[in-house]
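Ferredoxin
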Amino acid sequence: MSLMITDECINCDVCEPECPNSAISQGEEIYEIDPNLCTECVGHYDEPQCQQVCPVDCIPLDPDNKESKEELMQKYIVITANA
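Structure:
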């Protein structure tokens, strides 16, 4: 399952540079996560790095993009193969 950023985001800029897949970008009002690029850091780290640095805890799992750890690993393999 990919992550999402809720409207509690304060645009502090700490999550974007932590994402190893460049899935986080500035949206119109708050930062956004591209579900096609988010692997919850599977393949890179044991825990999602954006969640670790977020000072307001506004990065939950996205219920609209459910994926297993195996699916996230496959996505990681595809993303890094094209890098």
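The mean pLDDT is 95.
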